[in-house]
Amino acid sequence: MRIGFGYDVHRLVADRPLVLGGVNIPYEKGLLGHSDADVLAHAVMDALLGAAGEGDIGRHFPDSDPQYKGISSLSLLSRVEHILNGKGLTVGNIDSVIVAQAPKLAPFMNEMKIKMAKSLRTEPYRINVKATTTEGLGFTGTGEGIAAYAIALVLPAR
């Protein structure tokens, strides 16, 4: 078995959709980035790539490459699954946490698990999504941005 850790953060801005775990969340701001800026999917991808010894998402999907402009992070997550598959690896489990003062994310977490599991060609029970606030402290607490952390276990494919 192999374990990887991922982290991502993006600034919240007006006139952008808020996408987390592939789910469009109703909110007055969205995350700024080259792709859809889905911090949860990005943290999960980095954790999986790290577990596979394959660097990070910047190596595979650089923001300097126009083909990734506005791309769905679920599409990139599917590409990460192909990288794992090519190395004879599969998802054991993923545990993740979104750090955001607002909006409330509990109503959307199951859909996030389902969408990410579909992109990874695995079962939703292998993915855990949590959310927390920072009690008003730091950039997430003041609403300037959202962060996400993830840890992933990958196993040899059967």
TrEMBL record:
Please write the reaction equations for the catalytic activity of this protein. 4-CDP-2-C-methyl-D-erythritol 2-phosphate = 2-C-methyl-D-erythritol 2,4-cyclic diphosphate + CMP
Give the metabolic or biological pathway: Isoprenoid biosynthesis; isopentenyl diphosphate biosynthesis via DXP pathway; isopentenyl diphosphate from 1-deoxy-D-xylulose 5-phosphate: step 4/6
| Sites marked Transition state stabilizer | H34, T133
Q: Which InterPro entries match?
A: MECDP_synthase, MECDP_synthase_CS, MECDP_synthase_sf
Q: Bound how, and how many: what does the cofactor note say?
A: Binds 1 divalent metal cation per subunit.
Q: Name one GO molecular function term.
A: 2-C-methyl-D-erythritol 2,4-cyclodiphosphate synthase activity
The record's keywords, sorted A to Z, are:
Isoprene biosynthesis, Lyase, Metal-binding
- Swiss-Prot/TrEMBL cofactor(s): a divalent metal cation
Which family does the UniProt entry place this protein in? Belongs to the IspF family.
What does the UniProt function comment say about this protein?
A: Involved in the biosynthesis of isopentenyl diphosphate (IPP) and dimethylallyl diphosphate (DMAPP), two major building blocks of isoprenoid compounds. Catalyzes the conversion of 4-diphosphocytidyl-2-C-methyl-D-erythritol 2-phosphate (CDP-ME2P) to 2-C-methyl-D-erythritol 2,4-cyclodiphosphate (ME-CPP) with a corresponding release of cytidine 5-monophosphate (CMP).
Q: How does it assemble?
A: Homotrimer.
Report the HAMAP family cross-referenced here: IspF
Q: What is this protein called?
A: 2-C-methyl-D-erythritol 2,4-cyclodiphosphate synthase
Q: What is the lineage of its organism?
A: Bacteria, Bacillati, Bacillota, Clostridia, Eubacteriales
